[in-house]
Amino acid sequence: MIESMNLVILIASVLVVVAVFTSLISFRVGAPLLLVFLFVGLGAGEDGIGGINFDNAPLAYFIGSIALAMILFDSGFETQLRTLKIAAAPSLVLATVGVMLTAFVVGGVTWLVLDVPWLVALLFGAIVSSTDAAAVFFLLRVGGINLRDRTRSTLEVESGSNDPMAVFLTISLVELIMQGGGDNLALELLERFVLQIGLGAVLGLLGGMAIVQMINRVKLEPALVPIVTLACALSLFGATSIVGGSGFLAVYVAGLYAGNSQMRMSVGVRRFQHVTTWLAQIVMFVTMGLLATPSQFGDVIIPGVILALVLVFVARPVAVWLCLMFFNFSRNDTAFISWVGLRGAVSILLAIVPMVEGVEYGQLLFNTAFIVVITSLLLQGWTIRLMARWLGIMIPPRHGPVDRIDLELPGNANQEIVVYRVHSESAVATGQRIPRWARPSLILRDGKSLRPHSAGRIEGGDQVYIITPPRHVELLDQLFAGPAEGANDVDLFGDFSFPPDTRIADLGRLYGFVVGDADEEATVAEILERNLSGDIEPGDRVAYGMVELIVRRIDDTHEIVEVGMAVEQKPVKPKRHLPMFHSRTELLAIWKEWQRRRLREKMRKKRGDDVLDTDDAKEPGDDMSIVDDAANDGENDDIGPVRAESGKSDKS
């Protein structure tokens, strides 16, 4: 017995070490890291070189559930309140309605491809309906893809919050299948939804409040605080699941509340969770790989690939478009969000549930889900950067601090240690004096630590440590950080720059362009914010008469700090314009234009009938006058309004 335990410990630890070192492959060749972990498990399994015979589905589900709960708690803890405010509404719709739409579309195709009962087909749609938070977070945060905050926030919040919905659908459908179905499927699912999601949200909020109060009131050893926090989160997960709620939603909400509260030792908790979350991801993916039997994939590889392609190119895009059209995302942003719908370990974990509960087609669903996950990670995970570049939605990176370390101080003294690697083109490196409030506490140069008074003039490449309130980071950027990529490019950011409170009327008088009466008191920042609808990033341009206003710089809260202006509008390479994913505004414009065309057609037809009716009453010599009158009527009554309406439509 003891030898068997030692063997298990040895094998498990070796697999973790192998998975960690194979991550170097991901960084070198750009492969999705979690796919590498999955292949480590496959290679160690019974059909791989390891030859480990692991077929304990209940144990795999137990391990995966704990790992997913830890991942979701950390996802909530890392989600900032500002991110949630930006993307709360679209993410919530995607995490609920989007998951259900995806499940129904994939379920319908599964019923045709796998030839299974329709309830089992719908179950498979629910299994692969959610995106993988670990895969999305890794590819966006570590992959260096710079996106608009609204797009990035929507993807991150959706991927962290849609797992509970997929879990609810999967477990509910498994129970209905085992009970032989129901008389009213929609009503039963609605009742279960209200119970599980409602209890999960309420208990998660109460649990998050309890965790914060306990950590702040009980004076524990600092090293024990992260352990107690995680243990309380897992306790909340188990308790919520026992009373019939969604434990996964509960831990996510608890993490969301705790991460955005003034909790003692939050810095230590965050660092500890980074470690445990990575370990949970490795264990989860390797375990799922061990459970799979690749020799059984031959029978389902073609249906699995077909379902994966339907999921990637039909189900996910349709669900995302229908959910986001009311939030006026651009077509390219909607297309990118639909492409970043990676499936991962959560889908494989949910595919274990039918096997554990003894559903007749459980093994078939598990093998097919595995093929779908591998296809998704290979197809989408390897092309996310290429897709972002092809759609033209990547924004210039903003150079700022290389690290920001929260300080645990008593009371409300909110301070950070901000670390900069001084850019060679920064203001300080080129000779500007450092204000007293921005002087570094420590300088690292050539591997040596220097005191500010003995370091002399700060040089490019120095690493400086500054203790400062978070609100001063934007000011420090102007001193130590390099400009954003292309910040000095006139074609990109304009010929001149102005403060955001400059009045557009003053610029109009100075540069000789007409300003509308309604904009006499408007500032350049107000003009930009009005036209960009709050979704502002550096490089955004708004045409105003003969000039263009350009966003040069923004702060951490996305307030405009500097505005550029191009006097001569230069031709800018247009973004790729997709013929799909129209927003609500665009659809309304198309509808109004169709109505106008229909009305004009009726008017032309009516005038043609009137001409024919009066033709019989005229003398033969009056034919030309009738035609001339009709032409004049058409020119005055039809062509003028058409041009005006067309111009209005183009503007809209």
From TrEMBL:
Keywords: Antiport, Cell membrane, Ion transport, Membrane, Potassium, Potassium transport, Transmembrane, Transmembrane helix, Transport
Composition bias, Basic and acidic residues: 607-621
Topology in the lipid bilayer: Multi-pass membrane protein
Location in or out of the cell: Cell membrane
A Pfam family the protein falls into: Na_H_Exchanger
Transmembrane annotation, as ranges: 7-39, 59-77, 89-112, 118-140, 193-215, 227-254, 275-294, 300-324, 336-356, 368-388
Region (Disordered): 605-652
Protein name, UniProt field: Potassium transporter
Residue span(s) of domain RCK C-terminal: 402-482
Gene3D superfamilies, per the entry: 1.20.1530.20
Keyword Transport: yes
PROSITE patterns, A to Z: RCK_C
